[in-house]
Design brief:
Layout (H helix, E strand, L loop, with lengths): L8 H16 L16 H21 L21 H17 L17 H21 L8 H14 L18 E7 L5 E7 L2 E4 L12 E5 L1 H8 L11 E4 L1 H10 L3
Parallel strand pairs: 1-4
Antiparallel strand pairs: 1-2, 2-3, 4-5
Length: about 260
C-alpha cells in the first residue's frame, strides 16, 4: 500500500515544525521528555533541528552512496529560549532545498524508496513524532490528522526492514512464515507483515488483504502510528491486539526506531 501521493509532505513538514516551535516558546526547556528517556525539551529540539539540517544536506548534495560523515554546521542557539526560532530556521532551509529538488531524483536512502522524496517524507514523520514527544513533556494532548497518520503507518512499516543500522533489534524479527496484520479502524488502511526465516516485510497489495494472519492489531490511524513508534502502549483502550501473543511480544520488543 502506498499512501504517499495523498499528502503534500513538503507543506506538512513546515506545518508540523511550526506546531513544534510554538510548543517551545515560553516552555521550561529543562522539562523531561517521558517518551525519550534521558532527554529534556532542549535535547528534543536540538535533535529535531539537527535532523532537518542533516536531511537538507543530503538532498542538496543528491548523495548516491552512504555518507562517510554526519558533520553539519548546526549554528546552535546560544540560549535555550532560542530553540523555537532555530527549529523554524532549519525548516525554512529545508523548504528551500525541497523547492529546488526533484522528488523523483534517484539518490541514496537507508529505506525502501530510493528517491529524494524519501527524505522529505521521512522528515515529516520524524518531526511529527517528536512534536508529540514535546506535547507529552508539557502534559498536553496530541492530535494527528487522519491522512498523515495513515501515511505514517505505511512509511514506518515500509522502512522498518531496512532500519538495522540504527535499530539493530529489528534483526530479531524473523519467523517461520508468521504474519501480523495492522489495521486502521477509522480509515481503509490495512497492512500484512510477514516474518520469514531470513527477515520480514510488508506483503504487497492484491491478495494481502485477504490472507489470514496469526495476530491482528487494530486501532484508529493516529493511535496505530503512535503505537508503532512506542508512544502508546498496546494496552490502551483504543487498541485491539488479537491472536498470537508471543508473536506480538516479539514484534513490539524489537520494532521501535
Amino acid at each position: 500500500m502506498n499512501t504517499a501521493d495523498q499528502l503534500d509532505h513538503r507543506a506538512a513538514v513546515a506545518a508540523e515544525t511550526a506546531r513544534f516551535a510554538d510548543l517551545l516558546r515560553g516552555a521550561d526547556m529543562t522539562a523531561p521528555v517521558p517518551t525519550c528517556p534521558g532527554w529534556n525539551l532542549t535535547d528534543l529540539a536540538r535533535h529535531a533541528g539537527s535532523v532537518h539540517r542533516w536531511f537538507s544536506v543530503l538532498l542538496r548534495r543528491r548523495i548516491q552512496a552512504p555518507p562517510t560523515s554526519r558533520d553539519v554546521d548546526l549554528r546552535l542557539p546560544e540560549r535555550a529560549d532560542g530553540y523555537a526560532d532555530w527549529l523554524e530556521q532549519g525548516a525554512a532551509e529545508a523548504a528551500e532545498v525541497f523547492a529546488n529538488t526533484d522528488p523523483d531524483a534517484p539518490m541514496w536512502v537507508w529505506g525502501a524508496d530510493g528517491h529524494a522524496r524519501f527524505w522529505v517524507r521521512r522528515m515529516l514523520f520524524e518531526t511529527l513524532v517528536h512534536r508529540v514527544d514535546a506535547e507529552r513533556a508539557l502534559g498536553l494532548p496530541s492530535a494527528v490528522g487522519l491522512a498523515q497518520a495513515r501515511d505514517g503507518v505505511d512509511e514506518f512499516l515500509a522502512n522498518l526492514p531496512f532500519a538495522a543500522l540504527f535499530a539493530p533489534k529489528v534483526a530479531n524479527l524473523r519467523g517461520a512464515d508468521r504474519s501480523i496484520r495492522f489495521e486502521c479502524t477509522d480509515t481503509d488502511g490495512s497492512w500484512l507483515v510477514r516474518l520469514r526465516p531470513d527477515g520480514f516485510g510488508t506483503v504487497p497489495g492484491g491478495t494481502a488483504d485477504e490472507e489470514p494472519a496469526e495476530a491482528v492489531v487494530r486501532a484508529p490511524a493516529a493511535d496505530l502510528l503512535l503505537l508503532l513508534y512506542g508512544r502508546l502502549d498496546r494496552s490502551a483502550a483504543t487498541v485491539e491486539a488479537l491472536g498470537d501473543r508471543e508473536l506480538l511480544d516479539l514484534w513490539f520488543a524489537n520494532s521501535e526506531f
